[in-house]
Amino acid sequence: MPQQTAGTPTYQQKTTSRRPAGTLYRGREGMWSWVLHRITGVAIFFFLLVHILDTALVRVSPEAYNAVIGQYQTPIMGLGETALVAAIVFHAFNGLRIILIDFWNAKYQKVMFYVVIGLWVVTMLAFVPRHLTNVFNH
Amino acid sequence: MSTTIEAPRSPYARAPRKRGVNWEKWGWIYMRVSGVVLVVLIFGHLFVNLWLGEGVSALNFAFVAGKLTNPFWMVWDVLMLWLALIHGGNGMRTLVNDYATQPLTRGILKWAIFASVAVLIILGTLVVFTFDPCPAGAPADLLPSFCSAL
Ligand code: HEM
Ligand code: HEM
């Protein structure tokens, strides 16, 4: 920001670090969490478009709805649902992290990123075995 | 020695507006408020539909009929529908602003996002409020058990 060079020193000017700094979203945890947040957000959006259409089949006939929900119960789709839940759980926890950065304190963004990863691992460890048992035992 | 970094996305394509409603600000607030509510709604949705009982293998028309005749789940689903689609649509708009550089492509993409969100909100809302758990002529074994009492 050239107009700031004359005034109070910015965070970028005060630092002795050689790495580009001054924005949370450049490099390392701050950037990768953002990349993942974007990719998962887009993936969930496209799933949701299809999901509302498949749910709408309850207005067509019980047979039509059962045919499509039966697809959700196949092994391939079972793996897809695992990926979807992985995406939504990351997006949800990291979304809360973004909110905490904005309204609470950006200082803890790295710690909070590892908390997000930790909560994600715990949630997935609880969910995946149970879900895959349901999918593959039927 | 320090590195100077250009402020992201400057200069502005259009001068920032100085008066009137700051829609970008309200969009920013909406993403955060809807996000908090969506955590509860979506985790609850996945807990009931994927975790309880036999999870995904238990889903069928009769299961949905049990939920969509209950006002609690009707309100839950409609809230989730509106909040998630507007949140996702507004998020997609951010991506178009970031990656689509031609005014025409931007226009087409944003219009397509808006149209799909609007159509699906109307469709999903109608599905929840016009749902018929016991459609005439459907085989009884596919229907929820309370239909036979009619
Ligand atoms: C694999 C995971 C999922 C399964 C098996 C599933 C299953 C279902 C089922 C059976 C219904 C019918 C109504 C009900 O149960 O309440 C439904 C409706 C709905 N689901 Fe999901 N769901 C999944 C993931 C999601 C996700 C991640 C979202 C949000 C982004 C979502 C949003 C919705 C909405 C908005 C409705 C209501 C649709 C309408 O108004 O017509 N679902 N889902
Ligand atoms: C589970 C609860 C959710 C939370 C806590 C959450 C939170 C957030 C937050 C805080 C943002 C950042 C907005 C900004 O930077 O201004 C965001 C962006 C986004 N969200 Fe969500 N969200 C959730 C669910 C969803 C769902 C269901 C969808 C898809 C239908 C979605 C799609 C997106 C997209 C596409 C973006 C834009 C990404 C970007 O600008 O990089 N999110 N979300």
Automatic annotation (TrEMBL), chain A:
Main location as per UniProt = membrane
Gene Ontology terms, MF aspect: electron transfer activity; metal ion binding
Gene Ontology CC terms: membrane
Q: Which UniProt keywords apply?
A: Heme, Iron, Membrane, Metal-binding, Transmembrane, Transmembrane helix
SUPFAM superfamilies given in the database record: Fumarate reductase respiratory complex transmembrane subunits
Which InterPro entries does the record associate with it? SdhC_prok, SQR/QFR_C/D, Succ_DH_cytb556, SuccDH_FuR_B_TM-su
Question: What's an example Gene Ontology biological process for this entry?
Answer: tricarboxylic acid cycle
Localization: Membrane
User: Transmembrane residues, as ranges?
Assistant: 35-53, 111-128
Q: Which Gene3D superfamilies match?
A: Fumarate reductase/succinate dehydrogenase, transmembrane subunit (1.20.1300.10)
Which cofactors does it use?
heme
Q: Which NCBIfam families match?
A: succ_dehyd_cytB (TIGR02970)
User: Family per UniProt?
Assistant: Belongs to the cytochrome b560 family.
Report what the protein is called: Succinate dehydrogenase, cytochrome b556 subunit
Which organism does this sequence originate in? Cryobacterium tagatosivorans
Q: What is the lineage of its organism?
A: Bacteria, Bacillati, Actinomycetota, Actinomycetes, Micrococcales
Protein encoded by which gene = sdhC
Automatic annotation (TrEMBL), chain B:
Task: Give the transmembrane ranges.
Answer: 29-52, 72-90, 111-131
GO CC term, one of those recorded: membrane
Q: Where in the cell is it found?
A: Membrane
- In the record, what terms sit under GO molecular function? metal ion binding
What Pfam families would the database entry show?
Sdh_cyt (PF01127)
Cite the entry's keywords alphabetically. Answer: Heme, Iron, Membrane, Metal-binding, Transmembrane, Transmembrane helix
Question: What is the official name of this protein in its record?
Answer: Succinate dehydrogenase
Species the sequence originates in = Cryobacterium tagatosivorans
